[in-house]
Write a structure and sequence with these properties.
homodimer; 555 residues; alpha/beta; four-stranded parallel sheet; 14% strand; globular
């Protein structure tokens, strides 16, 4: 038995590179401010909801400006939502800055996500404990959770916990929703004059928490690289065995940044982009026809193999599927009360449902393979709704392509398939050097924002395609990224999600080349994430970021 | 668009380490021999079948002994069977030795596996071409195939191809079956006095081509490390989210060396070993009960999560399942002719089948979840038989554990599951330094055996847990590893497969610790394969090999 793998041991000793703007140490950082900010949309509503934290200026750290006050500050930190590689380094960076500022400062970690601060379940970090988690993947250091911090009662309890521990700032590491709630908490604490600050850190492997100020959320780099490794390996297998079509679903329900990055890294024959499907109002049939066409063309060129990438959220972006599923939810709610339905065999159930759907939805439902119909009826969520995340979209497409191929007189080849789903393999991978450095800087920077007395800010590190020595650091007011959106029928303030921009340089790069990818074999094999080799192998970030920043793509 | 990833570029320049015994170059290698050899079993039958290549001595290369003749030799090489990381380096090593011996020597690569030599489809290698494939994964350099070289007609065509190209030696890179056929070809060519030699190289990610002479087949190291990376990542996710049980099936139908190595690398809560299931005649029920017990014990300790490893071939090692599937094959053959069965709905089909099975098999069949019953009936192979490889064993176990938990009054926890299958992700991974070095040495050594005029030998590199400078090199007569086994009802000569030895040090290490793995969280996170870092991170081979060779485990 052993405790750690050789790589785990080696990575514990990695010294993450701190952003150039912070590298002189927390005591030497100076701050300056831009003018007042606004919101991306719905300024009046946002201002009304966040009276006390709205419109604050963007903060920048450098060696010019005001010094930070090194008051005694105890801080509490929370991991919120799904795992992303590098979360532990955010905490390590925060801890190091806090202790460098004043060795009597305390850092508390709330256990199991936001519920930890509400229920006052916590640990206090010390050197020995934190050192075991440096540069490691996972959120197991204190655990994470999905409780939403949003009610008055929760805020009251949070305040009580902070007062009991003499905590004067809370750092929330989370995605768009968690940071929206961080801002609500900041507003509440400020309105009550508690003096307790709230700072957010941008986390999500999906890469959809980004905007004019935030270049990328942490974890995206490592997760996309891990999936690229696997997709590349499978491509090499496809290209060696020359007998399988691999349909690979990639985690990510609301945006396809991961799928697009992996597509650019590996150059597969097919990569579906949910945002394009929605924008072009593509039907399931048209998607299946597109895939079938590629399969047929390749077969006619003697290639009975290929690789297709499918975004996890695809189904929810196909208008007719969305309509059908929503109708199905209503129908099932009433049918579940009828014993004649409940006791029926599957095939009978399908007929009953089909008869109750309108023509268009019935057509869509009937076009689905029985495996998928069965999945739609099984395992509904606690509200009785179809669990879209349980639908095996990769198998749905395989079955429909198979059926389609039988109708195609121009298809003379063979079609044998393999289905894959990658998600959990990447969320907790050990962070790449980029994510290790970026996260450490985000955490360190969060303490600089705390020292500057700020609240309602998101920790912000910029210039990320350059070496860390050139990275800028600062803070962005959370309200600046917000607008009003409908959630469960109500208008709510939320941080605007960044979907794939179909006119942006990343999608354009893919669009320009995808026909070539489809028919020729342009496979690239990224291989495993490297930590110790040449900089171009170990330290470059994603193609997405390089293309977005219009720097010459270096690696 | 790009052609190569940064890692691909960097790896092209890696200089694989040649075994110490060969490092002075092909022209300076000397050969010596042990006494005559025998077969592992059935000596008389093997001797009779392989009259002209039976009993040859073991060959060793060093700087003492006879010099090799540097005659002009053209060689043909074949990749046979499933992909394994490092195959390209076997060819690169062979090419380099052949050109160093005599720059006018030619190396031909036969396309698409053994059928390439039969049909005379080939390329001639040159520097530029071979340089593009150094240290890369996959078998795409010339492709592979599963044609078995075994008939007189195939041998005649092979001879014709060799004569046409003036080829005097064939190198077959393959697993146990391919090397058995290599030996048949060697015998045939020698009996006919053709002067054409045949040399094998031991390939398979399954790790079951090993014996007193062959320490390990190539590809096992990289594949097991790639799966370990993924399993470790998933464990970190399980241990962070603390809400899922992950059931992970690992490729490998006949032996569980991969599963056992991954279990030692990652220390999961459960790892099933097919050889143990067979030896202890475990029933499906007893396996499900064992898993359920672990789930319940962990839940009662507040841990509603875990990771279980399932070998792909499990079902075929459960005696009652084997019996039931074999009965099912017979029953389905006749039922498929009855339209009342063919047109029946699934549930009816299950009743019809169940009525025709004997009591024990009916009990097993009826205990299966309907998903699995459906898989047994769908997609049969060309002979009409159930395709065991298509059965989702990981889902079978999940469904049965779920059903079991409902009966357990002592279970108060939650059970949410995720199913995974890893196979294609590892077969074509870029070779680890170990596999890159080992394969290069195997190929280089194959040409040394050819230069020594030998035929019917397997290329052999030993001492593999030591640094490459201490690796020994030589050749083992293929007949030495053979015995007679029943295949499709007939006794045939085959290379004996190495299954997991339940009394060996590797299984014992696992057995000693598995209860601890089950209940405590002993997860180890191996991370991605590294190529450039410290030796203990980059150059160590598997724990299996370290334990088998009883060296102090170094990494």
């Amino acid at each position: 038995m052993r405790d750690l793998s050789p790589l785990q041991k080696a990575r514990l000793n990695y010294n993450p590179k701190l952003a150039g703007a912070l590298v002189k140490g927390i005591k030497n950082v100076k701050i300056s401010f831009s003018g007042a900010t606004s919101a991306v949309k719905d300024e009046n509503e946002i201002k009304e909801l966040f009276k006390d934290v709205y419109g604050q200026p963007i903060a920048s750290f450098s060696d010019k400006g005001e010094s930070l006050s090194m008051l005694n500050k105890n801080v509490g930190v929370i991991l919120s939502g799904g795992q992303a590689p590098g979360g532990h380094n955010v905490i390590a960076g925060l801890y190091d800055a806090l202790k460098q500022a004043n060795s009597s400062n305390k850092l508390y970690g709330f256990l199991g996500g936001p519920s930890g601060i509400i229920d006052s379940e916590y640990i206090e970090f010390n050197d020995e404990f934190i050192n075991e988690y440096r540069n490691t993947g996972g959120f197991d250091i204190i655990g994470s959770g999905r409780t939403k911090l949003e009610t008055e009662e929760q805020f009251e309890k949070t305040l009580a916990t902070c007062n009991a521990l003499n905590i004067s700032a809370i750092v929330i590491i989370g995605g768009d929703d968690s940071n929206t709630n961080a801002c609500m908490l900041a507003q509440w604490l400020k309105a009550k004059n508690t003096g307790i600050q709230v700072i957010g850190c941008p986390k999500t492997i999906d890469g959809d928490l980004k905007n004019s100020q935030i270049e990328i959320s942490f974890g995206f780099d490592t997760a996309a690289k891990t999936y690229s490794e696997l997709v590349g390996n499978i491509q090499r297998d496809a290209n060696s065995a020359k007998k399988y079509w691999h349909f690979i679903k990639l985690m990510g329900r609301s945006a396809t940044h991961v799928g697009l990055e992996v597509a650019l890294q590996t150059q597969p024959n097919i990569a579906l982009i949910s945002e394009e499907v929605e924008a072009k109002k593509q039907s399931l049939k048209s998607i299946v026809d597109y895939i079938t066409d590629v399969v047929v063309k390749r077969a006619n060129a003697g290639k009975n193999f290929g690789v297709a990438l499918i975004p996890e959220g695809l189904i929810e972006f196909i208008p007719e599927m969305k309509t059908m599923i929503s109708a199905l939810n209503d129908i099932l709610a009433s049918l579940e009360k009828e014993s004649s339905f409940v006791n029926a065999q599957n095939e009978e159930k399908y007929s009953i449902i089909s008869a109750k759907l309108d023509n268009e939805s019935a057509g869509v439902f009937n076009s689905l393979p029985s495996l998928i119909k069965a999945q739609l009826l099984m395992d509904r969520d606690p509200h009785g709704n179809v669990q879209v995340s349980k639908i095996e979209t990769e198998k749905l497409l395989i079955e429909m392509v198979k059926a389609n191929l039988k109708q195609r007189s121009d298809f003379k080849g063979k079609f044998s398939e393999q289905a894959h789903f990658f998600g959990y393999e990447g969320r907790c991978a050990a962070p790449s050097n980029f994510d290790a450095d970026y996260c450490y800087s985000l955490g360190y920077n969060a303490f600089a924002l705390i020292s500057a007395g700020l609240s309602g800010y998101l920790s912000c590190i910029k210039n990320l395609t350059e070496p860390a020595a050139n990275w800028k650091a600062g803070g962005v007011p959370l309200t600046m990224m917000m607008n009003m959106e409908k959630r469960h029928g109500k208008m709510k303030p939320v941080i605007q999600k960044a979907l794939v921009d179909l006119n942006g340089p990343v999608f354009k790069e893919f669009e320009t080349n995808r026909e070539k990818y489809a028919l020729e074999d342009c496979y690239v094999y990224p291989g495993a994430i490297q930590y110790f080799g040449p900089a171009e192998v170990c330290d470059c970030t994603t193609l997405t970021l390089q293309l977005e920043q219009k720097v010459a793509v270096q690696c």
